[in-house]
């Protein structure tokens, strides 16, 4: 942000939203790694024959959140941050809504966390549209 931009409320809000969104992703990813055993169980259970894939994804997903979050927070490599974060956040509601199909987990049990994840996806869309430097991405 240039000195002239620092006096623009729009520029300041973009900087703050992008930074705090990135930090939030970073902290979520770190929290998942700090409780990795519980996180692996939560992600993989209810996937039936795909539990192995769920287990593998449970180790990858927090890393995507950490890396994407750091890049967003620093305002660096916007395209990479967008890819990493989009894959991570998009996989959450998809995986949650796959469980009722694979093993009969009640849809009423899967919907609340899926809707919560979709809220994160909407925020991600807004941040990636309005808060990334298109020239430096």
SS summary, helix count: 5
Q: Enumerate the spans where pLDDT stays under 50 for 5 or more consecutive residues.
A: none
Number of strands: 0
Strand percentage: under 5%
Q: How confident is the prediction overall: mean pLDDT?
A: 90
Kindly report how far apart the N and C termini lie: 15 Å
Helix content: over 70%
The number of domains is: 1
Gyration radius (Cα, Å) is 17 Å
Largest sheet: none
- Structural class per helix/strand content? mainly alpha
Written as H for each helix and E for each strand, in order along the chain, the element string is: HHHHH
Oligomeric state of the chains in view: single chain
Global outline = elongated
Task: Tell me about this structure.
The protein has 137 residues and is an all-alpha fold. It has one domain. Helices cover 80% and strands 0% of the residues. It has helices spanning 9-34, 36-44, 51-74, 78-103, 107-130. The longest helix is centred in the first third of the chain and has 26 residues, at 9-34. The protein is elongated. The chain starts with 8 loop residues before the first helix and ends in a 7-residue tail after the last helix.
């Amino acid at each position: 942000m240039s000195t002239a931009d620092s006096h623009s409320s729009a520029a300041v809000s973009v900087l703050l939203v992008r930074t705090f969104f990135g930090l939030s992703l970073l902290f979520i990813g770190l929290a998942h790694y700090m409780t990795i055993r519980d996180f692996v169980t939560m992600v993989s259970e209810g996937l039936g024959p795909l539990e192995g894939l769920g287990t593998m994804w449970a180790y990858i997903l927090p890393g995507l959140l950490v890396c994407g979050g750091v890049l967003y927070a620093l305002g660096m490599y916007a395209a990479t941050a967008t890819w990493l974060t989009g894959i991570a956040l998009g996989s959450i509601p998809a995986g949650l809504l796959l469980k009722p199909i694979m093993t009969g987990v009640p849809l009423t049990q899967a919907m609340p966390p899926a809707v919560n994840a979709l809220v994160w996806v909407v925020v991600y869309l807004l941040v990636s549209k309005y808060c990334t430097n298109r020239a430096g991405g």
